Amino acid sequence: MLLTRIRYHAPAATQAYPFNLPWLQGWPGLTFTTPITILVGENGSGKSTLLEAIATNYEAILMSGAALVDNKEYDLARELGAHFKLEWTHKTRGGFFFRADDFISYLRATRERQAFATQELARIDAVDPTSLERQPYLNTLAEIRHMYAANLDHLSHGQAFLGMFERRLRSGGLYLLDEPEAPLTPQNQLALLALIHDAAATGAQFILSTHSPILMALPGATLYELGDTLAPTRFDDIAHVQFMRNFLADPDRFIHHLFPDS
């Protein structure tokens, strides 16, 4: 285990968001007992805010390598994180903070880097194919090929996502993942589940939020549900899991209820 505990010291005034989240009232903090911790709850319950507050507290990097320090988007989470005390067995700089929205932007920027490097190589080669000017662009293309093991233009978002995770998950890293299932089909969610499980077995730690019952089923994970409280829960007791089971068992019943004339 890398991060072992969060201690929370509430400010004197707790009326403004995020300090007015129900589960924060009287919350002492959270102890991590397994390498994988999964946060579940409805939209607006504060799962993302909690992950962002942890990330800003110890100045985690984004998946792209960018820092959170000057990013105004995380100001509210930063206010909450300032009231956290993180306790570690070993404080790591490995790992990253991930949001699905950030990945789409990162992938777009990476494809633009690839296209620019390719164009510049063609321009230089047309004049002098032996020029040393080629080297930075060759390095860029080699880095991208190493990251994805394929031509990025030939990969879907989901395939690129899995390729990135397969090469970026390392022993000794702390990974904060906010709804990582977003770009993935159910089958690819299973592939991500396997990647997380294998990395955790070699010493990585994960704290993730999800709406995916597939990821909620990660073997050995500790599940917490955010609502009126932040409390341990079991897979079979999660409302989202129960709803999905009922829907898949009889989708017509739900559809008929929504659209009685259909």
TrEMBL record:
Transmembrane segments: none annotated. The keyword Glycosyltransferase does not apply. Keywords: ATP-binding, Cell membrane, Ion transport, Iron, Iron transport, Membrane, Nucleotide-binding, Transport. It is a peripheral membrane protein. GO terms for molecular function: ATP binding; ATP hydrolysis activity. GO terms for cellular component: plasma membrane. SMART domains: AAA (SM00382). Gene3D superfamilies: P-loop containing nucleotide triphosphate hydrolases. One of its GO terms (biological process) is iron ion transport. Its main location: membrane. The keyword Kinase does not apply. Residues 33-245 form the AAA+ ATPase domain. It is found in: Cell membrane. This is Glutamine abc transporter atp-binding protein.
